[in-house]
Specification:
- By secondary structure, the chain is mainly beta.
- It folds into two domains: 234 residues, TolB, C-terminal domain (Neuraminidase); 240 residues, Neuraminidase (6 Propeller).
- A hairpin with a 4-residue loop joins strand 17 and strand 18.
- The longest helix is centred in the first third of the chain and has 9 residues.
- The radius of gyration is 22 Å and the shape is globular.
- Belongs to the major royal jelly protein family.
- It holds the Pfam family MRJP.
- It is found in: Secreted.
- Keywords: Secreted, Signal.
Length: 477
Amino acid sequence: MKQYLLAFALLGLLTVPSRSQNRRSVGKFEEVFSWKQLTFDINGIPVVQDRFSEEDLAGRDKRATDNIYFNYNNDDDKDWNRRPPGHINGNPIDTPSLAAIDPNEEIGRFFIQYNNVIMGAEKVGNRLFVTIPRRRFGIPATLNYIDLSVHGRTRSPPLTPYPDMARSRSLISVYRTRADECGRLWTVDTGTIEIPNNPRYLQTPAIVVFDLKTDRQILRYQLKTSDLPGNNTPTGLASITVAIKNGDCSDAYAFISDVVTYGVIVFSLKQNDSWRQQHNYFHFNPTAGNLRVAGQSFTWNDGVFSVAVGPEGPDGCRPTYFHPMVSSQEFSVSSCELESREANQTAYTVLGDRGTNSQCTMHDLHAPTNVMFFAEVGRDSVSCWNTERPLNPDNMEILAQDSQRLSYPSDLHVTDDEVWVTANTLPRFIYSRLDTDEYNFFIYRAKVRDLISGTVCAGNTRPSPGFSPSYGGYHRS
C-alpha cells in the first residue's frame, strides 16, 4: 500500500489538500476533485502513464493486441440477459489480428492517458461513479468509481473500473449514469467507439443495470431496431433518466435522450419492452447553434439532451421536463404520455426561454424546493429556476460562472439535497489540445438550500405534483 501511494505522490498526482485547498470553489460550489489528467487503480496497480497493453496488470482474464474483449460472466438465465447471438468466445467483434501493431498508433493501446476525458459523475452513497465514453482508443474502462471514504481528501484520485476490471469490459461506451431509489445504477451502453470520422459500431446499444448492493449486472436489454432509426443513432444516446411508478421497484420507466436523430427512447422494466417517441420539440434550434466554449468557436446541432422528472402525482403521472442542447427553450410533457407509446402530439408544452447563451447539457429537479438546476455550456455556468414560476430570464439566476473551471459543464445531478456538477473542457479536447500542465476536469458539489438562499429561485418548498395550468402546463386530477 505504501508503494502504491508513493507511486502517485512521486508523479505529483496525489496530494492531500491544505485547509485553503479545501476551500476551492466556484460561486457556492465546492471543488470535490480535479485532475490535469486521469489515472487508474486497476487490481491494486497504479496506472499513471500510457501502457501499450494490460499484460503486466494482475488479475486479467483476457487481453488482445488490437481489440477490446468483453466477458459475460453473469449467471442470470433470463432471455434478455443471455449473450447476444454471433459472439465469438464472448467477444462481439472480430478475433484478434495477427498483424504487428505500430506502438505509435493508438489502435489497440490499453491506456492513452490524454484520451481519457470524464463526461459524467454521480454520487451514490460513499461512491462517486465516473464515466469516460470511448471517443478515442486507450480507455481502460468506460464506467468507474471513486470510493469517497478512501479518497475524500485526495484532489486527483485514481479511478477504479466498475464493478471490477474484468466485468467492466462488458461495457463499450457509457456517457452518464443514473441511480434510482431501489438501489440500482442505470446506464446506456452505446456499443460504439466514436473515433472521429471512423466510428466503430461494436454491438447493439443496450440498457445495462447494476444492483448496487451486490455490484452485479441484473439487466442487459438490447434496444430494438425501431428504437434506432439511423446508423449514427448510437452516438447520440447521451443520458438516461429513471422514474419508479407508485414506489414499485419492478415498475420502472427509463427515458433515453437521442441527441443525434432527435427522439426519446422509453423503456418499461415491467413490460421488458421499449419504444421511441418523436416530436418537433426534440430537435435543435438552428439559431442557437453557434457556440464559443473553452476558447473554441463551433457550430453544433445536438437535439434533446436531458430529461428530468418531477414528483409523482395522485394519478401516477409526473411532470417531465426536457430540452435540446442547442436551444435556450425548455419543454414539458406528462410522463404518462411518454409511457403510452403513442403520445398525443398536442400534449407537449413550451415552458419558456432561459435567455441568451443558455444552451444546456444536463438539468435536474430538487423536488422539495421545486427548483431546477441547469448545466449551461453556453455561458460556463450553473443556473436555477423555481418551477412554480413562469420560465423566463427574470426568474432564472446564475449561481456559478467561470470560463476556466466551469468550462463545458457536462453533467449535473441532484442527490441527498446536494447538486453535483462535472466540467471537462470538452471543446478544447475536440478542436484544439488540452494543456496537461493545467487542471482540465472538475467535480463540484453544493447544498441546494445554500445555493438558492437569497436568489430568485427560493420560495415554495411544497412538492408539486404538476404544473399550474396558468403557466401553460398540464394538470391531471
